[in-house]
Structure formats: C-alpha cells, structure tokens
C-alpha cells in the first residue's frame, strides 16, 4: 500500500516531464522545414514567405540575404538559396573574395606566432588561439611552425576586426583529443594543397558531390576542403594525388555524367606509371629542363663581352661619381691629372664628357647583346672559359676546346642553341656512359644554379629531379648527388658526377 501511494505521488512530475518533452519535440519538428528545396534567386528577390514558412525566428547565415527595416528579407546576390536546420538560410554564390562566416571550415597557413595565438592566412588575416584545440592545455598543446597548414572553423566574425578561428569541434560533434590524430580540425601534414574557386570548394562539401563520389569508388584518399577555396589532398602515391587534384579542378563546369567519364579517363591514362615514366625518359628533356637550359644558353652566349661591358659600365659610373664630387666640392675631393697636378674645372668637365660617351656606348652595346636575335647567339671558347673561371675552376685551352667540340656538330668552332640542346638531349638518353659529358656536366650544374653563384643546394635541384624521376626515385637521386651535404660547389659537383659515372661504367663491366 505504501509503495502504491509513493508511485502515485511521483506520477504528476513524470507527466509534466513527458508533456515538456513532447512539446519540445513538436517545436523542433515545426522549426524544421521538410518541404524546403533549393531555388535560384536574383538580387532584390523577396524571400520572406519562403523563410518564415515554419517560424518567425530566422537566422541569416553568411552573405546574400538582408533584412530590411520593414522586416522583409531580400536577396543581395545572385545564387542558390540554401537551408540548414534549424532556421539557417543563406545564398550560395561564387565569391571572388572569401568573406568569413560563422562555422565555415577553412584551410590556412600560419604566418606568425606568439605565446597566446597564431596568425593564420585564410585569404585574409585570422587569429587562432594557442589553446583552441580539443584537449589542449598550457602544458600539452600543439606547436605549429611558420608555414604550417591548418584546417579550422570560423568561431567569431565581426566587420571591424579580424575573424577568429578554432580547431575545436562544434558542440554537435563528438570531440577527439588533438593528440590522437583523430580530431576533425588541426594541422594538415604531408599531402598536397591547391587553390580552387570558392564556388567549386563549396560544391565539394555537398553530400552529392559527384567528383568525390567517383574518385572514392576507384581510389583511397583523404581530402579537406576549405570554404575559402583551398583544398588539401592526401593519398598513398604522388600519382594518385595528381589524378585527384586534376579531377577536382576539371570538374567545376561538368555535368555528373561528364565527371564520371573524366575520372575514368584520368585513371586509364595513369594506369601504368612505369611505362609512362619510361616514355618520358625516352623523350629526353622535360619542359622544365629545357626552360632552364635556354636560360643557361642566354647566360653563356657572348659571356665574355657582357662581362667586359659590365665592368666598363661599373668603372664609368664610379669615375663619374668621383669627377662630379671633385667638381662640386673641389676643396674636399681632389683629383690629379696624368702629370700629378690637381685637375682644373675645365679638365674635369672634359673628362666627364668622355666618360659619358664611353658609358653611353657601353650601355648601348650591353642592350644590343641582350636583345640580339637568338639565332645569331653562340657560345665561344672564351665565353665558356670565363664562365667556368667565375665558378672557381680554371681550365686549359685544350679542355675548353674539347668541351666545345662535344656539341659543335657543324665544326664551326662555336655552339649555337640547337647544338647545345642536342648535346644535352644525347647525354640524357645515353645508357652506355660512352657519350662525352664534360660540357653536359657544366651546363647541367648551371641549370640548377639559377643565381649563377657557383653553389647549388638540395632545394635548387629538387624540382627538376622530382619532375624527371618522380617521388619514387627522388630520395635516391638526391642522396647520390649530395650525400650528407646540404650544398655543393661547382668543383664538388663535377667530382661527384664524375665518380658516379665511373661507378656506373664499372657496374656495367661486371654485369
């Protein structure tokens, strides 16, 4: 009896809770617009009726909508009207410039850091708190370096100050500690990052995105898409990353059926990467090498004349400065003539005129040499000698003559562009190590040395080696060339490639 009375006493409270729960669910259901469908809108369109169909409490998320003083809601941009429960509406259109909006997922680069926050470039400046990571504490928090790539979401926006971003998951998502590597937001390591239009980036975030669905059926990969038009892709091989990034960029103006066909075509073309690599080798020079070889040819042709003109111009400018100083301040700056007597003003003026004539002629000759017809440019023995000497190595006349001979197909004693290009190609295709390579080694060093300073670093060579050999052989080729060093002088480089050539010859002899 006592138990029965107790149960009866509790029943009114339980009934009240049930009523509250039912009321909450009914309100939530009424606030969700199940009949909403995306529509194309134009600036000035009145969408008040559409947005207030289920509730008067509407939240305008992002850009494209504005509430007027008379409480009407109109569109300010042409695009597609979008909706997300509960009661969040916006117009999706292809921005030319990213404008931060609440809860946008963005990808940015760390440009500055201090103890309290990081400054991140997301297309505009933004701040990321040093503790704005799931599970981060003062003692246990990520340490991002300058240049680090970060996937985050916009947490605060204000028209008058920089937006704030965070790497913490929103309340509706289960949080994972940043140390586990399973957090949604955080630093993006490895992979490849590229920029797209903001419209394409937003389309990649749709659940029915055709290009990601088509790629996902054929390739395993990870992707992070920033609404600010930045996409990060990571896959098991460079080939797959290239396919995925190209497919995404190509898909922007394609229909779903065209996207499927395009993805299939890209996969077929890259099916046999080893065969493709062999074909590339058979073609000799890659485009990047040819561009650098052209730069080297322009540098070497008429090198001695250009060097002499440069010295002449420098000497004339220095002499002119001293003459003007002596003319303007004869008591402070004194110059002597050939007889050892202080120069008069007339003598100074006379020499100034001669210096100006010499300078004018030297500058004209320099411009003429730089703008001469490419078909008339050639590399002479003296040009090659002076260029190699500038790198700290002095060659004999016979060594220089032999190098010119390696490329001089018409035996006219000079090397033109076609001869240099042909020589470079022959050496790239040579598998016997029998092709003379002294001039090739000099020129190849210069293709790496873009500053013409006589020293190359790993960074200088990496782009060309990666383009020629791919990711699979890059590390081995870098190790062969640099060993444990970070940079090589011209003399060291010649020694390394010569040693490698001899090693290849011995290996073939044993085989």
Automatic annotation (TrEMBL):
Q: Which Gene Ontology terms describe the biological processes this protein takes part in?
A: CUT catabolic process; exonucleolytic trimming to generate mature 3'-end of 5.8S rRNA from tricistronic rRNA transcript (SSU-rRNA, 5.8S rRNA, LSU-rRNA); nuclear polyadenylation-dependent rRNA catabolic process; poly(A)-dependent snoRNA 3'-end processing; TRAMP-dependent tRNA surveillance pathway; U4 snRNA 3'-end processing
- One Gene Ontology cellular component: nuclear exosome (RNase complex)
Which parts form a coiled-coil structure per UniProt? 286-365
Compartments it resides in: Nucleus
* EF-hand domain residues: 395-430
Q: List the InterPro entries hit by this protein, alphabetically.
A: EF-hand-dom_pair, EF_hand_dom, Exosome_RNA_bind1/RRP40/RRP4, KH_dom_type_1, KH_dom_type_1_sf, NA-bd_OB-fold, RRP40_KH-I, Rrp40_N_euk
Major location (coarse): nucleus
Q: Which UniProt keywords apply?
A: Coiled coil, Exosome, RNA-binding
Q: Name one GO molecular function term.
A: RNA binding
Its recorded name reads: EF-hand domain-containing protein
Give the source species: Phytophthora kernoviae
């Amino acid at each position: 009896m006592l138990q029965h009375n107790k149960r009866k006493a509790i029943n009114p409270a339980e009934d009240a809770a049930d009523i509250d729960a039912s009321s909450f669910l009914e309100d939530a259901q009424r606030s969700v617009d199940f009949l909403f469908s995306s529509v194309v809108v134009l600036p000035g369109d009145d969408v008040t009726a559409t947005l207030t169909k289920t509730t008067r409490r509407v939240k305008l998320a992002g850009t494209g909508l504005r509430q007027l003083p008379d409480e009407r809601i109109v569109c300010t941009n042409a695009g597609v009207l979008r909706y997300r429960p509960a009661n969040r509406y916006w117009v999706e259109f292809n921005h030319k410039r990213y404008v931060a909006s609440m809860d946008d997922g963005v990808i940015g680069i760390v440009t500055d850091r201090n103890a309290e926050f990081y400054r991140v470039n997301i297309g505009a400046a933004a701040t990321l708190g040093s503790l704005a990571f799931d599970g981060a504490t003062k003692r246990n928090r990520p340490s991002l370096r300058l240049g680090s790539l970060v996937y985050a979401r916009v947490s605060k926006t204000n028209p008058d100050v920089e937006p704030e971003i965070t790497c913490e998951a929103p309340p509706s998502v289960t949080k994972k500690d940043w140390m586990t590597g399973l957090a949604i937001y955080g630093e993006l390591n490895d992979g490849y990052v590229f920029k797209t239009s903001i419209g394409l980036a937003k389309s990649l975030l749709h659940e029915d995105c055709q290009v990601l669905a088509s790629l996902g059926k054929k390739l395993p990969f990870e992707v992070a898409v920033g609404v600010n038009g930045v996409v990060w892709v990571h896959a098991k091989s460079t080939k797959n990353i290239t396919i995925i990034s190209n497919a995404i960029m190509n898909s922007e103006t394609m229909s779903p059926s065209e996207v499927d066909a395009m993805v299939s075509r890209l996969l077929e073309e890259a099916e046999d990467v080893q065969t493709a690599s062999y074909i590339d080798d058979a073609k000799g020079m890659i485009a990047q090498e040819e561009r650098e070889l052209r730069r080297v040819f322009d540098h070497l042709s008429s090198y001695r004349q250009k060097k002499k003109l440069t010295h002449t111009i420098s000497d004339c400018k220095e002499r002119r400065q001293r003459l003007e100083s002596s003319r303007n301040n004869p008591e402070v700056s004194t110059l002597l003539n050939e007889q050892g007597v202080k120069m008069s003003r007339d003598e100074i003026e006379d020499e100034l005129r001669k210096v100006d004539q010499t300078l004018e002629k030297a500058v004209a000759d320099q411009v003429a040499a730089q703008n001469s017809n490419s078909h008339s440019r050639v590399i002479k023995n003296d040009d090659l000698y002076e260029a190699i000497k500038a790198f700290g190595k002095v060659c004999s006349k016979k060594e220089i003559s032999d190098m010119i001979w390696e490329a001089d197909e018409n035996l006219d004693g000079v090397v033109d562009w076609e001869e240099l290009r042909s020589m470079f190609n022959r050496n790239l295709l040579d598998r016997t190590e029998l092709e003379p390579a002294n001039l090739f080694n000099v020129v190849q060093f210069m293709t790496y040395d873009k500053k013409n300073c006589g020293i190359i670093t790993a960074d200088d060579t990496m782009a060309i080696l990666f383009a020629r050999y791919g990711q699979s052989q890059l590390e081995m080729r870098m190790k062969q060339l640099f060993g444990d060093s970070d940079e090589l002088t011209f003399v060291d480089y010649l020694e390394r490639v010569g040693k490698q050539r001899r090693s290849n010859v011995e290996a073939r002899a044993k085989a």
